[in-house]
Amino acid sequence: MNKTEPRTLSGFMELLPNEQILFNQMKEKIENTYKKFGFLPLDTPVIELSEVLLAKAGGETEKQIYRFNKGETDLSLRFDLTVPLSKYVAKNYGNLSFPFRRYQIGKVYRGERTQKGRFREFYQCDIDVIGDGELDLINDAELPSVIYTIFKELGFDDFTIRINNRKILNGLFESLEQKEKSVEILRIIDKIEKIGKEAVIEELTKIGVSNNSINKIISFIEIKGSSDEKIEQLENLQIENETFIIGVSELKEVIKNIRLFGVPEENFKVDLTIARGLDYYTGTVYETFLNEYRELGSVCSGGRYENLAEYYTNKKLPGVGVSIGLTRLFYKLNELNIIKAEQKSVSEIMIIPMIENLEEPIKLATELRKLGINTEIYLNNKKLKAKFKYADKLKIPYVIVIGEDEINSNTIKLKDMETGEEKILPLNANEVIKGTRPLIK
Amino acid sequence: MNKTEPRTLSGFMELLPNEQILFNQMKEKIENTYKKFGFLPLDTPVIELSEVLLAKAGGETEKQIYRFNKGETDLSLRFDLTVPLSKYVAKNYGNLSFPFRRYQIGKVYRGERTQKGRFREFYQCDIDVIGDGELDLINDAELPSVIYTIFKELGFDDFTIRINNRKILNGLFESLEQKEKSVEILRIIDKIEKIGKEAVIEELTKIGVSNNSINKIISFIEIKGSSDEKIEQLENLQIENETFIIGVSELKEVIKNIRLFGVPEENFKVDLTIARGLDYYTGTVYETFLNEYRELGSVCSGGRYENLAEYYTNKKLPGVGVSIGLTRLFYKLNELNIIKAEQKSVSEIMIIPMIENLEEPIKLATELRKLGINTEIYLNNKKLKAKFKYADKLKIPYVIVIGEDEINSNTIKLKDMETGEEKILPLNANEVIKGTRPLIK
């Protein structure tokens, strides 16, 4: 028979079991934290009507969409979890309680040019809080505490949630009479970390911003100091623009409350250069950086928006949300050896029966599972050495051997695969667990 | 602005939060059981190269595929989790330990004609055990114990795992010299539950099976009695066909071992009419029925196959596996009111702060979360009544009120939302949990 080469598409992550175990552990930590804060689960379809999914989209996004016809129907794969959320909230408005706090963890699709570390199918892990008509600013301060909890859970200490408010930037541009160029200016200053100050000045000149305005913009984004010092300097700028003034006051309030939510001083700061996208966010914006690995870019981003679902409904639905791009985060952490996929099995104990009658080994396995221990039985007829090799290759922490001698004396032989230590224990699940306790959570 | 109607495609399940909570609980129970038995996680892409995904497929399946081009590339959405597994094992053969025990829970896509209770996007929850060259028959007896554990976990008692062996049917047809018609005959007798005996006889006559052979086939599938009695009758048939003899002996061995694996007598039985698909399975086959809801059809099916990945590799990879179609199962159970989506929130406690300074409410929430309690804080500035209404609508079991009085006396007011009972407790997470213990797991 002709064989087809078993390929996986480039840009699509497919992990080996040990990597998958680690990936799933990270995903679970994120999900459990979202649940701890009372966010409700959601799971929308991967495929939507193009008309619905692309009600708003345009430009870059549209080019990347996986779009196709099935019969007469024009379909698209979701490219984020925000548009499906908008549709969902508009569609189910009458059945939801507001503020609607939801999380969704799922795969999204973008047909980007493939390159190392870029994925066309990737997990987003989103939370959003949606208000009905209004949503208090205090919610903008709670989300950083969720981000903080997650990255601590994932084992990081040195990370910073960078916070800004889009109204400050918008107000500044208004005051400089550059409002109509604000989208372009934002796009340029967003790149300052990447391309540097000189290149930013050059690009701003190119689009016709006056030297005077450029100076003001640069001195603005160069405001230095602690979060409180930055806010003080903003207040001292005496910019008589209402949007600007509201933005500064919102940022001040959010920073004050983030402290209240228990995020330590070293894990957040005001960063006036963060703009996040071009037309979506309208207030608070967040980016999160692992400080020792700045090359990863922001690992968790989001912000406040005025109106979630304006393309579907007249209801005003303001919200605030953040998203973790888990696939890329995992890929990068793994590549940089920051995380290590050492666990190769989910089994904590493997039972090797060396007798014909499997009754006792199966009974023991069932009891162990009931007590919460993942247990597999080696069921194939191989030599003892081959069975141990399997356990060794999968790094299963403990192996239990049950042979004639053990059955006759109502015992089992427990081997700690890491230390090589062997123990004879009573044939009883509780006794076995006592014998392994230190390693098994 | 023109509004787009926020529609979801028909045939695509999108649940309300309370339904989603229940769906996820079922999914978690399945996943946890798979892990308890030591199955490794896998998560393959939803999109594959059509050439790879359709290396084998044809007929009905191919028509239902979501297939499209992106640029020059011919892509398809997976229609099951078995073909991706075949590809994966062939591709990663050198990096896997055999027997390779894996689970995968994920969405698959089939563009079937939409009708009530039929889904185009649905979850499959699969486990398979793959051997390298060979795989002992004992594995066929372990899987029913996994199925048994899952349906018990899901709260069912009255279900039956029906077991057959394809070699018995194949051998029978060989002995009747109807081998070349076996696929057609199987398809017809597979329908006996649906269309009845007379219609089966009629269809068999139509395809040219002799009366004599029809009689033998019918008397065969009408063999009655307990599992052991059926096997005895099969042995007594004296059919001198090797395939048949092997099939009966395999079935006998599997039934013996299922008992050993602790599946109670009332939860499994030999059913000689079960064929499962037409050319894939080669030995043991399973179907699982909820006896009070036979109209659901089989809720967990699978079987033994000779060669998982013959389209991709020369390696012989026999395996055995089962699959639960969770989306349809959930839909039907929900429709029949067998399961009730009563939980409307993941939060176990909601804290209502009635003070300006949120420091103490936030501290308490953080402590409660650390102790494992999902806790949300009502953050928006509403009247107390509106806040309670929110907790009530979401059926959050406990509400804590912290106002001036409470802060001054270092206490909280805990309200049991089901009984209406109120308690004053110390402002301390451990004390609060003690006060709620009976309801919160």
Write the layout of secondary structure elements.
The structure is a homodimer of 441-residue chains.
Chain A: H1 17-36, E1 40-41, E2 47-49, H2 50-53, H3 60-64, E3 67-70, E4 73-77, H4 82-91, E5 100-109, E6 121-130, H5 138-153, E7 159-165, H6 166-175, H7 182-189, H8 192-195, H9 197-206, H10 211-221, H11 227-236, H12 242-260, E8 268-270, E9 284-290, E10 301-305, E11 319-325, H13 326-335, E12 349-353, H14 359-370, E13 375-377, H15 384-393, E14 398-402, H16 404-409, E15 411-416, E16 422-426, H17 429-436
Parallel strand pairs in A: 1-5, 7-8, 12-13, 12-14
Antiparallel strand pairs in A: 2-4, 3-4, 5-6, 6-11, 7-9, 9-10, 10-11, 14-15, 15-16
Tell me what you see in this structure.
Two copies of one chain form a homodimer. Chain A is an alpha+beta fold and 441 residues long. Chain A contains 17 helices and 16 strands. In chain A, helix 1 (17-36) runs antiparallel to helix 5 (138-153). Chain A is elongated. The two termini of chain A are 49 Å apart. The interface between A and B is large, with 100 and 100 residues.
What characteristics describe this protein?
homodimer, 441 residues, alpha+beta, eight-stranded mixed beta sheet, five-stranded mixed beta sheet, 17 helices, 20% strand, elongated
Which oligomeric state applies?
homodimer
Q: What general form of chain A does the structure show?
A: elongated
Number of separate strands of chain A: 16
Low-confidence stretches of chain A: none
Q: What gap, in angstroms, lies between the N and C termini of chain A?
A: 49 Å
Strand residue percentage of chain A: 15-25%
Structural class of chain A: alpha+beta
The number of helical elements of chain A comes to 17
Mean pLDDT score of chain A, rounded? 93
What is the radius of gyration of chain A computed over CA atoms, rounded to a whole number of angstroms? 28 Å
Chain pair with largest interface: A-B, 100 and 100 residues
Order of adjacent strands in the largest pleated sheet of chain A: 1-5-6-11-10-9-7-8
Q: Percentage of helical residues of chain A?
A: 25-40%
Main beta sheet of chain A, described? 8 strands, mixed
